[in-house]
Automatic annotation (TrEMBL):
It comes from the Eukaryota. InterPro entries: PH-like_dom_sf (IPR011993), PH_domain (IPR001849), PLEKHN1 (IPR042835). SUPFAM superfamilies: PH domain-like. GO terms for cellular component: cytoskeleton; mitochondrial membrane. This is PKHN1 protein. It comes from Casuarius casuarius (Southern cassowary). Residues 27-133 form the PH domain. GO terms for molecular function: cardiolipin binding; phosphatidic acid binding; phosphatidylinositol phosphate binding; phosphatidylserine binding.
Amino acid sequence: IQNQENQKENLDQRFPGLFKKGRRKTVVRNLGKIIYYSKVKFKFQHCQEVNDCYLELFQSYLYFQSMGSSGVTYQGLLPLKELNVCEIENVKSTGLEDHAFRIAGPLPNPLIVFCPTESELKQWLYHLEKQIHLNGGSLGLPFLSQ
């Protein structure tokens, strides 16, 4: 029975879920309901290196985590109220498709997120804008319809 319970917990937790900032640790699953999640690619705006990344959108936070061969490469927990999100047009210089958006806010360097399809991009923009609005943040885009 305990093995089944562990399997259920593993299914409920899609990505490794412990956010560490200094000595403080936050169990990501305790942040509330997951609104949307997916695996995307990302890079910091002023860097060339593109990494696979897991994004999880909660009611008040956006959690990102990039895994490399040596474990977690980058991770961040961003309060939605402080984020500014906008779609990026024509990002062909990276060699990736041009389904991208930029996340700015309490980061030293904005994130560029690359979605595999336009549909995925629209889903992210819709859910992010909706949650930012619900958290009292300012909207950088007109409200997108699903």
